[in-house]
């Protein structure tokens, strides 16, 4: 089973709302990732968690707040977003973040629209 | 991370082999070459990866040149469902950095 599950698949939120994206994997992976993908562009890394600790933050604005409550779950809390934050948000996981040769598996993504 | 260069688009006839090239001339000795594809509106799908040797799995073959400065992904018998954006990525450490990829269009 190489499944990374993301919920919700679609989310529409206002600029003053607080919402969260959820990601779950049961492969025993210890590294989890958030990527953002705008239309017709490649995915861009936002955050990396390794053993439930934040190891990489690619200078993401504070209106995006990641959380890793346990090794199977990864959340992305959203607050005071702007319309330009509308995008596909992808979660991924891998057995370990610093061992080359590991495969990183992606979920199907959550489509976010900020109105 | 080493940069990769791919053609922006390619066409392939259904049933024929699709050969997707990638240049990564600044690759370091311990960096792997990964290939992913993304079908419209879906998450990236892992295809294959390699370090030095050629690799084959049920989806594709990966040919890496001896100097490791370029590679080719081969889909042996392309089908319409292989139409997607194909990303060649050189992985350095704990992240994948996507380039712009190649839009492969498989036609009848």
How is this structure best described in words?
Helix content of chain A is 0%, strand content 56%. By secondary structure, chain A is mostly beta strands. In chain A, strands 2, 4, 5, 6, 9, 10 and 11 form a seven-stranded mixed beta sheet that branches. In chain A, strand 7 (64-70) and strand 8 (73-79) form a beta hairpin. Chain A is globular, with a radius of gyration of 13 Å. With 108 residues, chain B is mainly β. Chain B is 0% helix and 46% strand. Chain B has strands at residues 9-13, 18-23, 32-38, 45-50, 55-56, 61-64, 70-75, 84-91, 102-107. In chain B, the strands form two sheets. Chain B has a five-stranded mixed beta sheet with strand order 1-9-8-3-4, with no helix packed on it. In chain B, strands 2-7-6-5 form a four-stranded antiparallel beta sheet, with no helix packed on it. In chain B, a hairpin with a 4-residue loop joins strand 5 (55-56) and strand 6 (61-64). Chain B starts with 8 loop residues before the first strand and ends with a strand. The model of chain B has no long low-confidence stretch (mean pLDDT 93). Chains A and B meet through strand 5 and strand 10 of A and strand 3 and strand 4 of B.
**Beta-strand percentage range of chain B:** over 45%
How many strands of chain A? 11
User: Count the helices of chain A. How many?
Assistant: 0
What is the tally of helical segments of chain B? 0
Radius of gyration of chain A, in Å, reads: 13 Å
Uncertain segments of chain B are none
């Amino acid at each position: 089973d190489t499944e990374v599950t993301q919920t919700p698949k679609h989310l529409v939120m206002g600029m003053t709302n607080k919402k969260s994206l959820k990601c779950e994997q049961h492969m025993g992976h210890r590294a989890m990732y958030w990527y953002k993908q705008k239309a017709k562009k490649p995915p861009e890394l936002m955050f990396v968690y390794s053993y439930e600790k934040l190891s990489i933050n690619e200078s993401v604005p504070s209106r995006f707040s990641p959380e890793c409550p346990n090794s199977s779950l990864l959340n992305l809390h959203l607050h005071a977003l702007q319309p330009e934050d509308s995008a596909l948000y992808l979660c991924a996981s891998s057995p370990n973040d610093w061992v080359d040769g590991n495969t990183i598996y992606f979920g199907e993504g959550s489509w976010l629209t900020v109105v | 991370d080493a940069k990769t260069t791919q053609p922006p688009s390619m066409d392939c006839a259904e049933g024929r082999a699709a050969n997707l090239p990638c240049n990564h001339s600044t690759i370091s000795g311990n960096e792997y070459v990964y290939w992913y594809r993304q079908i419209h509106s879906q998450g990236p799908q892992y295809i294959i990866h390699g370090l030095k040797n050629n690799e084959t799995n049920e989806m594709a073959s990966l040919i890496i040149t001896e100097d490791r400065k370029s590679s080719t992904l081969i889909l042996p018998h392309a089908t319409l469902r292989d139409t997607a954006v194909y990303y060649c990525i050189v992985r350095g450490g704990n992240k994948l950095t996507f380039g712009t990829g190649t839009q492969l269009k498989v036609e009848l």
